[in-house]
Amino acid sequence: MTWPEAIRKLVESRASGRCEYCLIDQGDTGFPHQIDHVISRKHGGTSHADNLAFACYLCNCYKGSDIASVHAGTGKLVRLFHPRQDGWAEHFRIAGAIIEPLTDIGAVTSRLLRFNIPARVIERQLLHALNRYPN
Ligand SMILES: [Zn+2]
Description:
This protein is of the alpha+beta class. It has helices spanning about 5-15, 55-65, 90, 105-110, 120-130, and strands spanning about 35, 50-55, 70, 75-80, 90-95, 100.
C-alpha cells in the first residue's frame, strides 16, 4: 500500500523512527519500516492515524493481519499488543538482547512476532554494543 507522505511522516515521527513492536530503529534495518494497521482492515480496522503503527519489516510480516493469538501456557485467546492504546513497558521489558513479555498480551505478541528468534537477538546484541538499541 502506498501511503500519503503526510501520514507516513506522522506515523514515523510519532514513533521516533523506531518499530513500535520490537523498538528497532529504521536506520538499523535493511528495509524501511512499514505502516501497520494495528487492527487489520479485514477485521474492520480503519486507516485513521489512531489505528496505524510504525513497524519494522519483520514485525509487520510476522503479524500480518492477526489481531490475537492463543497463549501457549493457558490456551486462551489473547489480543495482541496495541501500540496506540497500550504502553510498551507495561507489556515488555528489555533484558540484555531479549525482549521479555510481562503480560499475556506481551507473551502472545512476542511469540507471534518472533521477537526472540536467534537472528533477531544477535542483531540486538550488535546494536547494544553500538548503543543503537535501548537498554
Ligand atoms: Zn519490529
